[in-house]
Amino acid sequence: MKKFIAVLLSIVLLLSVLSGCGSGKSQDGTAPSAPADKTDNGGAKTDTDSGEKTDTDSGEKTDTDSEPAPTNAGTTSPKANADGKVVIRIGMDTVGRLIEGTTPLECNPATYLLYDQIFKTDPWTKKPVSDCLEDWYWEDDLTLIMKLYDDVTFSNGEPATAEDILFSYKSLEDRGSTFTNDMFIDFANSEIRDDHTLAMKFTQSSGQIFYHYISLYDKSWCEAQPDWDDEAFNKPVGSGPYEAAEYVYNDHIVMKLRDDYWNKNAEPCIVDEVYIKQYADVSSMMMALETGEIDLCKGGPSDYSRWMALSEEEREKANYAVTACSGGVTQYISFDFGSFGGLWGDNINLRRAIGYGMDLDAIGVYLNGELLNRRTYGFASPESDYYYDAGHYDYNPEYAKQLLDEAGIDPSTITVKATMMTTDTYKNFAQITQYYLEQMGFKVEYEYADITAALSAWQNPDNSCFNLFYNAIGLTNFDATSSLLNAALARHGWQCIPDEGFREIYARCKSATATDEERVQANHDLQQYIWDNCLAIPISETAGVYAFNKDVLNETMVNAISMSGYYQTKGCIHASDWLH
Amino acid sequence: MLRYIIKRVLWMIPVMLGVLIVVFTITYFTPGDPVRNIVGQFATDEQYAAKAAQLGLDKGYFAQLGTYIWNIVTKFDFGTSFESNLPIKIQLMQRFPVSAQLGLMTVAFGLLFGIPLGLLVATHQYQAADYISTILALIFAAIPGFVLSLVGLIIFAVRLRWLPVGGLESFKSWILPVVTTGLPGIALMLRQTRTNMLEVIRQDYIRTARAKGLAQRTIIRKHAFRNCMIPIVTVVGGQVAFTLSGSLITENIFNIKGLGSYLYSGIVARDYPIINGCVLLIAFIVCVMNLLVDLSYTFIDPRIKAEFVGKSKRPKKVKANVNQGKVA
Predict the structure, then answer these.
(1) Which of A12, A95, A103 to mutate to probe the B interface, most B CBs <10 Å?
(2) Of B38, B44, B86, the CB nearest to A103
(3) Which of A508, A546, A510 is nearest to A525 (CA)?
């Protein structure tokens, strides 16, 4: 008996080992095999002006005996539940606190439902709009007149006044927020002209005030709380269309549509209740979606790959779906401009050689796999008017070598250093760029650190361990500056482009007074300038993965939520968000 | 006994202090800048300095350590979270009961099945039940708990839809966390019970009891089991300490707002006050559990209890009058 069991266990062990054996990525600088390109777009979705996506991977329906899961496909609003209420349950990996703006960590998408935003960007027109201001205009270069609607009312019944506007901005500064850094607000000299009119003064001309989402706070209620850190703020008072029916910090929030929302002219919200639940583990969140506990969540590349690996029949039967949407942010390579008199800052040929010496198509596929939206040559989303194709870095190692020779640069004398985060994307980026750099003759020295240590390394002006940088952060505003977020700030070496020409054009892009045409032209000029001076090398547009309950939402709605650049909640509540 | 307890409690102080210093030192010297993490990338130098001063992170190592220890000792203040600015104490008080409840249920689950199974297989050595149990115990002991948790979720929550994915709102939501965390515990207790019981039932006094005609059940219950309890209690104590301190991965997978997930969030965010506070609490739990385990020995083994008998109750030593040849 003992012998039999021993033999059985040995066979099981051997079979497990044999089945588990497989090829992995090489750990050295050899070319990793990039995933096969499924379509021109890498198997991802195609954007259209309407925001609708075509599923390039959907095939013919096959006859099966099993019924497909019920869906809300083809409709333009979420399906109501048995009580006739439209409830959307969203899973998020952070819920945090509702007090927006002290640090980015505290930003919470629920704030956009509970609070009116003083300014925000319309996702479709890219113009600044406001939830609560009737009008605003520049009285002069340094004075912005902001007129509040007469009937703005908080959920506690208190009317909003111009003082609340000023307080909302001032409280950010008081709480140590960095959001006001680039607004240059002169609080001391700002004037309350009347109950609903604020003359906000600035120390410098800046249009940044339109680009930060700042909630309108009730000054008297906030000041009545013991402390900004107090848990009283877990029962928020805002003037937005929703109120918090239940809020447990770091766990969940339930928001219900207010019957007494002051803005009767606002587009009606068609969602009666929004429930946001925090999940510490992303895989648990996906399981919650698959079991129907939530209706919408963001996913990751593995979730998308797993979904694409299902057969058509399985996807039909599933009560959920996973879609990849345009992320609106460009992945790109940038350089160390911290010391512009240094090697990388001074040698445009060196930078151009990087662009031509690396196969950026392969890099895009390698970084994104099935999620590759598309290769891009500009810094805005290609559907956007802001997009401009100034030129292509087509893979040409001979030309790269020629550029280096012309500049008198011997790559074998240069060590390319970089601090990489220990995320999969950065590791993949490091691996593939190391291969191409070594092919070109450079020495490569990458160090890896987790996000906090990496950020510290990047911020350290004395840190020379950055020559090449991969960036894919930004706002989904689909203009060029959203991907080059804060590149004009002079604080940080890796984001600093101390080039007056760049800064001048960047300022035009961000101008508060520019017309739409001027802003579009400025974006084009910016991308042309970047190309002319090889300040950054675009790779591809990012893609976001969303998973949703087919019985409540549909792909059009979810794609629009992503395209709109809103956080998931805000994009959910108006029908027009999906009909655009 | 009381003196022993007091002595053990006093010993906890240097232990806790040592743990505090070690953890504080490690987190202090770990690469990463919590101030930068909070203020973000675009803060000015003045804002950075102001936040560092507010958090007390502009001081040196010894100053920070001294301040931290003083606040704990005098005000029971573990500081505030860098990220949320909420007091650590409040969060610990809210989260610890959740982890404790989950932990105790897990241990109870392990005891409920582990010990009886251990007794069963020990008394049926080399039979089918023994082999099957041993194999299963090895499997569940070898598989990491988080793997069991994920597999359990996939099967029972996603595929079969019998149980919810996470949280602790309903009775059903307790099942997966308790069972998947408790299975390795069952395996451990089964093995421990089996091993100890096998050793005990081979003792002479057990043979004597059998020879006297006592029923097997009576022998196990009255004689054998009690004598193999001490190692089991040691294991159970360790299990309780481990589960009470919260399982980082299990709580994250099942979305349970306990001590483990709180510690994990602190580690990820470089939130040193959270890390220090959680580790101190865990160290305290371990010390208390060790004390309770040691005290429980006195109830199990009378010989150990006798060591704690007070001086007044001990018989007086009588000196023999050797020179006079008399014996008192």
Answers:
(1) A103
(2) B38
(3) A508
Q: What is the pLDDT of residues B162-204, one digit of tens each?
A: 999 888 888 899 999 999 988 988 888 898 888 888 888 888 8
Neighbours of A490 (CB within 10 A): 11
Query: Residue B217: pLDDT band by 50, 70, 90 thresholds?
Result: confident
Q: Which residue has the higher pLDDT, B73 or B83?
A: B73
Work out the average pLDDT over A525-549: 88
Contact B165 A284 (CB under 8 A): yes
Nearest to A340 by CA among A501, A486, A181: A501
Window from A223-232, A330-339, B165-174 with minimum mean pLDDT: A223-232
Give the chain A residue nearest B33 (alpha carbons). Answer: A456
Strands A273-278 and A296-299: unpaired
CA of B9, closest CA in chain A: separation in Å?
35
Residue A528 CB-density burial (10 A; 0-12 exposed, 13-18 middle, 19+ buried): middle
Q: Say whether pLDDT at A13 is over 80.
A: no
- Residues in chain A with CB shorter than 8 Å from the CB of B153 are 284, 287
Chain B residue with CA closest to A453: the answer is B32
ipTM over 0.95: no
Nearest CA distance, B33 vs chain A (angstrom): 6
Query: Which residues in chain A have their CB less than 8 angstroms from residue B150's CB?
Result: 283
Q: Residue B253: which of B166, B328, B188, B160 has the closest Cα? A: B166
What is the identity of the amino acid at A112? Y
Q: Residue A198: helix, strand or coil by DSSP?
A: strand
User: Over chain B, what is the mean pLDDT?
Assistant: 83
Cα–Cα distances in Å, from A24 out to A88, A308, B55?
41, 21, 45
